[in-house]
From TrEMBL:
Official protein name in the record: Small RNA 2'-O-methyltransferase
Gene from which this protein is expressed: HEN1_1
Source species: Anthurium amnicola
Keyword Isomerase: no
Cross-referenced InterPro entries: DSRM_2, Hen1_Lam_C
Pfam families, per the entry: DSRM_2, Hen1_Lam_C, Hen1_LCD
Keyword Ligase belongs to the record: no
Lineage: Eukaryota, Viridiplantae, Streptophyta, Embryophyta, Tracheophyta
One Gene Ontology MF term: methyltransferase activity
Residue stretches making up the Small RNA 2'-O-methyltransferase Hen1 La-motif C-terminal domain: 227-351
Amino acid sequence: MFMEAQEMSHVVVRKPPLSAKAILHQKYGEKACYKVEEVVEPVENDCPGLAIPQRGQVLYQCQLELPGCSVTSDKFTKKKDAEQSAAKMALEKLGIQCVSKDLTPEEALDELIMRISSLFTDKFLSAIHPMVSHFRAAIEREGDSFGMVPVSIIAACDVKVNNLCKVINPKAESEPLVAVSLVLKAARLSDSVRIDDQGLSIGKIGPYSSDSRQSLIDHPMCTNDILVEALYIPSSIEKAIETFNLKVSPGLYYMDEISQRLGVKDSSYILVSRTIGKASSETRFYFSFPRFPLSSPDSSPVSHLEEDINFRASHLSGQNICGGAVLATVGYTWKSRDLFYEDVSICTYYRPIRTVYRRAAL
């Protein structure tokens, strides 16, 4: 449905970046001991009377022993992925910085594939991370949407994913659709996640553990009804900006409420901008996906969408935003698993614009 963002910028790399295993080898040498074991996933026997034994999927788990540190990786389909995962866990536990600013686009794509895969694991669900609350909303859904996270949320709200997208293709900085297409590309290359039929959401292949699901359900997204003041900015500059109340209720995903205001089916049909103002503010623009496919993988989304550019929203965000857009301060932060929200008024909208013009005058 969407453009495969295959453009790779030519980056001159002075020094190849070191992998997590290489960094540990420099520091510990032969003292770093990797032990990879096969783990056979259990198989539910749908035919109790069947005498033929059934073998489950074979995965690999790595235990890494270092002086004063021991870690065990998640399960992976490849041994090398399990080893790299264990090495990265050890670096985090030891507080050793893994520098990746000199990644080539090809290496960044490999990192992006691993990052997407690592998000959809039981371990990540127990982590302290703003994205976890979006996964909580996903597992509370029913039917085909169960466990499916909008790809636009992953592209915009996970900082590591977003930074890797910008390394692969710098256009992801100003084009949310480019970042989305890169995340979809990485998901297709991962063997542990799946993409829905519409190509708008990503989910885990296989179920999460019951303990992981229960830990999320036990912490609701909000405990009572919330009314958050937000703005709707029409695409046409001739139409006035509208103020409306965004209602968020227990058990309801705030992105679904925004989708109703934009007139789309559900949250998976929404694109999300980067934050406006302070990174911790969670003030973002929300707008719908284009209603037509991006046919050529070598063309820029701008060439297809120029006629529908929302100039007011694009000017404020520094990104290309198309169609009517909702400006709201709502989302999840590192500070708490609870929903963060603030009212956005007309004054809030014009304040950063006045700041931009003041700086330009100076």
